[in-house]
Amino acid sequence: MRLLVLGGTVFLSRAVAEAALSRGHDVTTVSRGASGSPLEGARHVHADRDAPLPAELAGVEYDAVVDVSSRPSRVRSALAQLRAAHWVYVSSISVYADEATVGGAPGMLPQHEPLDEDSDDMADYGRLKAGCERLVGERAQSRAIVRPGLIVGPGDRSGRFTYWVDRMRRASDGEIVLAPGDPSDRVQLIDVRDLGAWIALLAERRTAGVFDAIGEPASIRDVLDDVAAGCGALPRWRWATDEQLEGVEVSPWMGPRSLPLWLPRPAYDGMMTHLAAPAFQAGLRTRPVADTARDTLAWLETADDPALTGLTADEEREVLAAFG
Ligand SMILES: NC(=O)c1ccc[n+]([C@@H]2O[C@H](COP(=O)([O-])OP(=O)(O)OC[C@H]3O[C@@H](n4cnc5c(N)ncnc54)[C@H](OP(=O)(O)O)[C@@H]3O)[C@@H](O)[C@H]2O)c1
């Protein structure tokens, strides 16, 4: 397959390009060179998508194009200038306006109103993704729309899963570690390499459809135990309820003074309980969380700036002391 990956130098788009190369495909990547270096084995075109695309891209008939952009102007211009038999657009579960309903899937949940003008406001992210989806739906004859949930693994610069890997790296055997919510709360994630491999497969097979792209939900207790196992750590979890955490001003999900992977219930019951079966039926395969944690730890130990988020060691000590 002749595959064009718009991006291909960092995290997910790079994982797509790597997977396609390992399957023997002819891969071209496109970037400005601001976020990462070109991938060995791929043809790389240096270009800024805010300008007309170079003739060496626009003049080729691709078997598939993969686009991860969240800017409608870039998606629109790629659709207008490039020729491809199949298009894979990487969207997000943020297109859904309902974060509470368990077992959500495309067509089941209401969506945000699409926005097809560019915006740098993170609050518009779901609407921008919906707008880009609409453009792809209108202009690509054959396409897959892929809506990932939480993407984790080596190279993840959001720090959300990596917080737990870093915490396990710092934990001594038997140390008490603050853990959020009810141990049975559901958590759902996907290793970037598994998602990349699946997107490459969707391109190769020209699979059409709209998919939530995520692993099977598991309890947060099992996920944290798997992270500990992957990092070779033996913590003792101190579970704190939503009310307890809110009472000491710990925030959910990410950011300063937060506990990553924690989402208060029942408001966010649906965020990490999407139906995974359709993606598995379309070829997705996922690795054990412990393997993701082990490899994320190896990456973390060499990363210059892993952009960690969450509680600092001092904040965690202070919160544990407050709980007695
Ligand atoms: N992280 C999550 O948990 C999560 C969850 C759901 C969905 N998603 C989606 O997953 C995807 C992640 O994609 P990603 O990891 O590959 O990162 P990304 O930041 O979306 O993609 C960046 C790539 O595009 C290139 N690029 C950016 N601006 C460009 C421009 N003006 N011209 C040419 N190239 C440009 C970058 O290289 P240069 O900067 O060097 O140009 C880089 O190669 C996104 O669609 C995101 O919305 C993420």
Tell me the layout of helices and strands.
Blueprint: E1 2-6, H1 11-22, E2 26-31, E3 43-46, H2 55-58, E4 61-67, H3 72-81, E5 83-90, H4 125-139, E6 143-148, E7 150-152, H5 162-170, E8 176-180, E9 186-187, E10 189-191, H6 192-205, E11 209-213, E12 218-219, H7 220-231, E13 236-240, H8 242-247, E14 251-253, E15 258-260, H9 277-281, H10 289-300, H11 313-323
Parallel strand pairs: 1-2, 1-4, 2-3, 4-5, 5-6, 6-11, 7-10, 8-13, 14-15
Antiparallel strand pairs: 9-12
Bound molecules: NADP nicotinamide-adenine-dinucleotide phosphate (NAP).
Residues 7-13, 30-35, 47-50, 68, 70, 90, 92, 148, 150-151, 158 line the site of NADP nicotinamide-adenine-dinucleotide phosphate.
- CATH topology group of the largest domain: Rossmann fold
Radius of gyration: 20 Å
Bulk shape? globular
| Percentage of residues in DSSP E strands | 15-25%
**Number of DSSP-assigned strands:** 15
What is the architecture of the largest domain at the second tier of CATH? 3-Layer(aba) Sandwich
| CATH level 1 class label of the largest domain | Alpha Beta
Low-confidence stretches: none
**Percentage of helical residues?**
25-40%
**Small molecules (ligands, ions, cofactors) in the structure:** NADP nicotinamide-adenine-dinucleotide phosphate
Strand order of the largest sheet: 3-2-1-4-5-6-11
Give the full name of the CATH homologous superfamily of the largest domain. Answer: NAD(P)-binding Rossmann-like Domain
Number of domains: 2
Per DSSP, the total helix count is: 11
Overall pLDDT confidence: 97
Main sheet characteristics: 7 strands, parallel
Cα-to-Cα separation, first versus last residue:
60 Å
Category by helix and strand content: alpha/beta
Q: Could you state the order of secondary-structure elements as H and E? A: EHEEHEHEHEEHEEEHEEHEHEEHHH
